[in-house]
Amino acid sequence: MKEYYIFGASKLGGIALSLLENRYSIAGFLDNDRNKHNKEFCGKNVYNPEFIFKAEPNIIIASEQYKEIEKQLILNNVKQYKIFRFSIEDVDIDFDSKKYWEERYKSGGNSGGGSYNHLAEFKSKIINEFVRSNNINNVCEWGGGDGNQLSLMNYPNYIGYDVSKTAIEICKDKFKNDLTKQFILYDGKKVSFERLEKNDLALSLDVIYHLIEDEIYDTYMKNLFDSSSKYVCIYSTNYNDHHTSHVKDREFLSHVENKFPEWKLIDYIENEYLSHKVKNRKLEFSNSNFYFFEKFSEER
């Protein structure tokens, strides 16, 4: 029987071991954290992956950083690997999206690779052109994060909502001299826009697949579409999958069609950095694409 190493000596790696050890011969764990090397985890030794790579091992990636680890394996010519994926039944039912992001920002984390470097530049190019060509004046964003993506955007007026108090504080400090921007702490509940002036454009960028809880997702979508009178832009994956604790891909187009029939898809722009398009494996890739909706109703 082939021996496999589980890459990721963490909670997810432990789940993988418990579910797979009856089907696979697990030789041990690999982890990039040197503090874990030569120690035991779940009864198995944890090894430095640099030494194991030389033996052309069979690897099962079980980590939330699976994209980075996959690139690492490719760069080291490791060809025999699998990515451990699990269903919603295997996920911690107590997962709290709001808590996760607050703790992430509070501990010094950021909004993720999608809000930096070439991926951020790609998003800004598409959205800035849409804002310019459609004479957009007021923009709101649901899940603005740490503001790095926002720093590349050309919005006449902007309101950013986020569930993380730390992220809001970061943005308020970063843009403290910019009077065109506001930042509002959002508690994840329904917001009433009946007495508020609606925006020309509402944005959701790399957020939908981070909404693990179904109730939170439903409320988020309601707020997103209720907050605009003209356009909604979603940048996200559009398929169902759940492979890490804080990522749950959703096929959201059918949800929009059923719940918001007055909104019609008017444009779809494919990502320049989809996984199959990126030849340079050192570059971050994304499976998100752009979906632009326009509201058609008697109100317009």
Task: Write out key terms for the chains shown.
300 residues, alpha/beta, seven-stranded mixed beta sheet, six-stranded mixed beta sheet, 15 strands
Describe the structure.
With 300 residues, the chain is an alpha/beta fold. 27% of the residues lie in helices and 26% in strands. The protein has eight helices and 15 strands. Strands 9-8-7-10-11-15-14 form a seven-stranded mixed sheet, with helices on both faces. Strands 3-4-2-1-5-6 form a six-stranded mixed sheet, with helices on both faces. A hairpin with a 2-residue loop joins β12 and β13 (247-249). The protein is elongated. The relative contact order is 0.12. Residues 87-93 have low confidence and may be disordered.
How would you summarize what this structure contains?
This protein is α/β, with parallel strands linked by helices. The chain is 27% helix and 26% strand.
Number of helices: 8
Shape: elongated
Q: Mind telling me the C-alpha Rg?
A: 21 Å
Helix fraction bin: 25-40%
By secondary-structure content and strand pairing, the structural class works out as: alpha/beta
In whole angstroms, the N-to-C terminal distance is 66 Å
Taken as a percent bin, the fraction of beta residues is 25-35%
Q: What is the string of helix and strand elements?
A: EHEEEHEHEHHEEHEEHEEEHEE
SSE layout and pairing:
Elements (H helix, E strand, L loop, with lengths): L2 E5 L3 H10 L4 E6 L9 E2 L2 E4 L1 H5 L4 E4 L4 H10 L5 E3 L13 H10 L10 H17 L4 E5 L14 E6 L2 H10 L6 E5 L13 E7 L8 H13 L1 E9 L4 E4 L2 E3 L3 H7 L3 E7 L19 E7 L5
Parallel strand pairs: 1-2, 1-5, 2-4, 5-6, 7-8, 7-10, 8-9, 10-11
Antiparallel strand pairs: 3-4, 11-15, 12-13, 14-15
